[in-house]
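Interim report, section 4.2 (structural modelling).
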Amino acid sequence: MKEWNRLGQNRAARMDRAAGLARGKLVAPGDIGALLTRVIEPGDRVCIEGNNQKQADFLAKALAALDPADVHGLHIVQSVLALPSHLDVFEKGVASKLDFSFSGPQAARLARLLSSGQLKIGAIHTYLELFGRYFTDLTPRVSLVCAAAADRNGNLYTGGNTEDTPVIVEATAFRRGIVIAQVNEIVDAVPRVDIPGDWVDFVVQSPKPHYIEPLFTRDPAQISEIQVLMAMMAIKGIYAEYGVRRLNHGIGFDTAAIELLLPTYAESLGLRGKIATHWALNPHPALIPAIEAGFVESVHSFGSELGMEDYIRARPDVFFTGPDGSMRSNRALSQTAGLYACDMFIGSTLQIDLQGNSSTATLGRIAGFGGAPNMGSDARGRRHGTEPWLRAGREAGQDGFRGRKLVVQMVETFREHMAPAFVDRLDAWELADQAGLDLPPVMIYGDDVTHILTEEGIANLLLCRTPEEREQAIRGVAGYTPVGLARDKRAVENLRDRGVIRRPADIGIDPKLATRDLLAAKSMKDLVRASGGLYDPPAKFRSW
Amino acid sequence: MERLEYEFDGGAPVAPRNRPTLTGVLGSGNLEVLVEPADLGGRVRVEVQTAAVGFGAIWQAVLADVFARWQVGDIRVSINDAGATPAVVALRLDQALSDHTGGGA
Amino acid sequence: MTSWLEATARERIAGLLDPGSFTEFVPPEARITSPHLAQLNQPAAFDDGVAVGRGTLEGAPMLIAAQEGAFMGGAVGEVHGAKITGLLERALDERAPVLLLLESGGVRLHEANAGLIAVSEIMRAILALRGAGVPVIVLNGGRVGVFGGMGIATCLCDRLIMSEDARLGLSGPEVIETTMGVEEFDAADRALVWRVTGGKNRAIFGEAVLVPDDIAAFRAAIRLDPVPLDVEAEHALLGARLDRFGAAEDALDIWADLGIETPARLPLLDTDDFLSAIEGKLA
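Predicted structure of the assembly:
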C-alpha cells in the first residue's frame, strides 16, 4: 500500500516534538533555539526571510546559534543574504548548501566561504526563478519569516514591506512545511491580514524590531551634472521618442536624476501624461516631485522604503494600499509586472562588453542579481501590443507582429577612479572560473539590451543589422575608454548618419545647459518639502 | 601626482586683452581650469597637474577633441585635476572656454 | 532665487556684490599655491581655496573673502590663511567693512602648524578691527559649515548671517564622538547634529540672523553698523546660558524650555514660519 501523506506525517512528528514550547502559536523569545532544534531536521531545506529591506534578523541569529551536532547539512533557499548571520550558519556548520538571488552586502565573505569549501552553491537565481523553484523542486521544509505584527491566532500584518513573505509562506504552508514568524509586536487585532493565521505555525516576538535597510533612498545633493545630462538624453531621446508609459527604474543616482527631471525638463517638453505614468518601482523618495506634479498615475512596489509610510498613506490613488491605509508590496507580483507588463527597463551597470552584455560582478565578490535581470529582459512570451513595444519590434526588423521590450543600460563611460565601464571582457567570466560557477554572472544579456546611453550618446542596438555594426555602435558611445578609442571612426560616423548613434546635439541637447538647477529637488529637505512634510527620511540622510 | 603638457595647433587667436578666467573647483572628482591669453604664435598650450597617474593618452585624446571643436589660439590653459572623468573634463573645458571667450563654440 | 549652498565661493561673491565690481587680490593667475601640498603629492588649487578682493555692495566699498568648501573642506593652510589675514589688515588700514563668506572644517591637517598660526593671526586681525569699529560680517551657508578655528573666528565678528543648511561649531561632530564617546554625541544622527549646530539653533540663541538659502537673502541681511565689543558682557551671557541649559541633552530640551510650541516641528519649518514660531522665545 503506497503511503500518500508522508509529508503530513513528518510534519505531525515535528509538531509533536515542539509540543509544550508554545502557548497556542506564541513562543517565548528565550525558547526559540529549542523550537528550531525540534522542528528542523538535518538536511532540511530552510528559507530565512531575507529581503532587500526587511530581515528576519532574530530568527537568522537563532538559527546560526544552533548546535551543529543537532542541526546540520541544511540547504538554505533564500532570496537575499544581507546580514552576517546569513553566512554564520555556513561557517558554523549548521548549513552547507545555498540557493539565492542577491548577496550584495555579504558578497566578499560569501566568495571566501565558497573557496574554503564551507558552502556549495546550487545556483544564483533571479528572484522569479528562485520563487518559481519554491514551487517546484526547492520548496522549503521550514521557513523563518518576518512581519510587523501578529495576533494570537497567527494572522500576520507585514506593513508596507510585505516583500517576499506571501511567496515563502504559500510555498511552505501548502506543502506541509512549518512556518515560524518573528514579529515586532503581538496585538489583539492586526490592522489587516497579510498572511492568514492558519498558514502560520509559530509566532515569536523579537526583542528588537526587525532590521530594515533604506536601500532606495538617493540624496539629490549627490547627483552630478553629467547625470543630469544623461537624464535629459534619456527623457528626450528614449522616453519621449517611444512614448514609454509603463516602466521600471533600476536603483541608483542615474535613474534618480531622471525621476527628478520629470517635473522640470520633461514638463517643459510637454510630456506630462505622455511618459512614465505607470510604474513597477519601490517607492523611491526621488519620485515624490513627479508624483506631486501629476506625472504618475500608479506605482506598484516590490517592497516599501523607510520614511515613505505617511506619504504613501496620503496618496492612495497612486500606491497600492490596504483598507488600513498602509502599503501592500509584493516582490513576486511586482517582478511579474516588471517582466511582462512594462515596456521599458532602464538601469545602471558597472561593465559592458562588446556584445552589450552587462554585469555588476567584480572579482572576489559573489553578489548575485536581484530583480534587474527579470525586468531587464525581453519577455518573449508577451502577447499584448503597445506602441513602444511594437515600435521597438519594428526597429529590430521583427516582421511587425512581435514587439520588443526596451532594455536600456545607462552608464558614464568611466566610473570613479577612472575605471572604464566598457571592457573587452567582463570580470564576470573570471569570477565564474574562480568560483566554479556554471555561468558567468551576467546581469543583462547583450541580446536583451536595446539601448546603451552614455554621456557620449545613445546607441540604438535595435537598428544594428550585423554583429560588426553592433560592436561599432557600442564603441561609438564608449568615449575615451580603450574600447571607445579603438572604434572605426568612419563606421561610427556612418552609424550616426543612420541614427543608430545619436549624440546630445543630434537630440537637440546642449550639454552646457545640463546643470543641477534642472533637478526638481536638490536636497533631501527639498524632497520632504515636496511631500508636504509627509516624507520622513532616516536620520542618516538628514541635514536639518 | 603627474604633470602633463600638450600643445595644439590653434585656430583664431583669442583677444589678448581677455582677462584670465578660472572655471570649476578642485574638489574630489573635479577640476579647475585657468585660461590666460598668451603669445604662442597662434597655438594652444595646456598644462595638467593631476592626482590620477597614468592617463596621459586619455588626456591627449580629450583635449584634442575639445580644441578641434573650439578653434581658438594664443591661449594658455592650466588645469588642476582631482580625478575627474573625461566627461567632466570635457564639460568643464567647454565651460572654461565659453567663460573666457564670452561665447559658445 | 539662487542657492548659496549650491554655489561655489566665486559664484557667491559674484551674486553678492554689485555686478562687475569685484577686483581680486592675489588672483589665480598669480599661482600663489600651497608649498606643502605638492610635497605631500596632493593637488594644490590656484587660489589655495580662498578668493579675496574688493568690490562694492549697493555702491559702498567693501573687502571680501570667500572660502571654497569643495577644496579640502575649506580648510585653512598657510597661503589660504595669509590671504584672509592680509585682507583683514588692509581693512584696518582702509577702514573698509569686511564680508567673510566662510565655509571651513578648520585648520588644514596637511599643514597644521602653519594653519594654526594663520588662524590665530586671523583672530587677532578681527579683534583689531572690532577695536577700531570696522565691521566684520560672516556669511555661513555652505555644506561644510564653519568649524574649528574658523568657528572661533566667526564668534569674534560683529555679525553672523546663516542659513538653516549651515552649521557652526568648534569641534566637528565626528571629533566629539571620537574623543567623548557616542553617548556624548552621535555624529551619525544627522538630525541631532543639525539641531545642535545648525543655523536654526544658532538663531534661537541670538548668535545668527537666519535667512533662506538664497544669495539675495544673504545680501539683504547685511548690516554694516559696527557692534560694540564688550567681552565682559559676552562672558556673563555665556555663563548664564551654561547655568540655564548646561544639563540639556539635546537642543529640543532647550527649545521646549524656552516655551516654543511643539519644538520637534522646528527643523522642517521654512525660514519665515520658523522665525514666527520662535518670535519672542529667544534664549
